[in-house]
Amino acid sequence: MMLWILFALMTAAAAIAILVPMTRAARVDDTTVAADEAVYKAQLEEVDRDLARGLVDEEAAAAARTEIARRLLAARRSAGAGIAASGWSWPVRVGQAVAVVGLPAGALALYLVLGSPDYPDQPLAARLAEPTEGQRVETLVARVEQHLASNPEDGKGWEVLGPVYMRLGRPQEAARAYANAIRLLGSTEQRESDYGEALVIVNRGIVNADARAAFERAVALAPDAVKPRYFLALALGQEGKRAQAVAAWQALLAGAAGNEPWVVSAREELAALGGEAPALRGPSAEDVEAAQDMPEADRREMILGMVQGLKDRLESQGGSVDEWLRLIQAYAVLGLTDEAKAAAGKASAAYQADEAALGRIRSQIKEIGLDS
């Protein structure tokens, strides 16, 4: 019902917007005619008074009356032309009819074709009561927010809401959700790291005291966790502690395989501080074997990324014979014989002056059957 009332009000507003200027123009012309008539009537009365006082004779008075009448007729004809031009000619009358009748009828017809007049109203409360399947993210968030408004001590609810707020670009609310989850459920590396990250985003990339404290708590719970160590290294650089920041970035990169998404930015931060990036470890045979339990597509994508990172670094920066052997072994395990042979050739060329290293390379070539 409210929808139809809204439509009626919108239609009336549109019609008024067209009709008011037309009516105003006509009203202006009527006012002008009335003013002219008043002036000419006063002039006729003045002629009669002059005649009565003997200031003019009857002939002169008749001539004056004739001239005044002529001017009044001319003024009326001019006003009539203005009315016809401004609001009362037939094209304008057609426009008025379209505004009053055609506009509402056209809008109604368009809505009946494209709209859903029989679709019932959907107030927020009703939408929140519907099954969650197929609902928009905003509606689902509203459901959780409504639940938490009534149950503010539901830590799981806050924990669910935090990552959703982050994906929606609402880091301030995400930080509040993570803080509540930590308060109600306790501190974990994941919760502390996510809380600190939200605070960093709120502060436009600056690791403030609250965020730093969260990351320190996360590292205390999981010393090898990457995210909190990354932000703590970033904080050291922002605080001007160059030597400590370089050491932190180097320690973080030393345990990387090379294909992680954060490696590029970590190397850039380290280079900006004038530090030298450590050699990234490549996949060992154990890494490759450990991935056998993963889904085929995921396993192969992970391993190929690690292998490619090692290959690129060895070809551009060089590396130890152990790293070359690891690269050859990884290609062999993946069944990429041609790539394994190419890596073996490059390794042999790199260590052609080192007989001990060449002996190890030849031994591995023979062991995995690349010499056949």
UniProtKB/TrEMBL annotation:
<dbReference type="GO" id="GO:0005886">
    <property type="term" value="C:plasma membrane"/>
</dbReference>
<dbReference type="GO" id="GO:0017004">
    <property type="term" value="P:cytochrome complex assembly"/>
</dbReference>
<keyword id="KW-0802">TPR repeat</keyword>
<protein>
    <submittedName>
        <fullName>Cytochrome C-type biogenesis transmembrane protein</fullName>
    </submittedName>
</protein>
<dbReference type="InterPro" id="IPR056413">
    <property type="entry name" value="TPR_CcmH_CycH"/>
</dbReference>
<keyword id="KW-0472">Membrane</keyword>
<dbReference type="GO" id="GO:0030313">
    <property type="term" value="C:cell envelope"/>
</dbReference>
<dbReference type="InterPro" id="IPR011990">
    <property type="entry name" value="TPR-like_helical_dom_sf"/>
</dbReference>
<keyword id="KW-0201">Cytochrome c-type biogenesis</keyword>
<dbReference type="Pfam" id="PF23914">
    <property type="entry name" value="TPR_CcmH_CycH"/>
</dbReference>
<keyword id="KW-0812">Transmembrane</keyword>
<feature type="domain" description="Cytochrome c-type biogenesis protein H TPR">
    <location>
        <begin position="129"/>
        <end position="254"/>
    </location>
</feature>
<dbReference type="InterPro" id="IPR017560">
    <property type="entry name" value="Cyt_c_biogenesis_CcmI"/>
</dbReference>
<dbReference type="InterPro" id="IPR051263">
    <property type="entry name" value="C-type_cytochrome_biogenesis"/>
</dbReference>
<keyword id="KW-0677">Repeat</keyword>
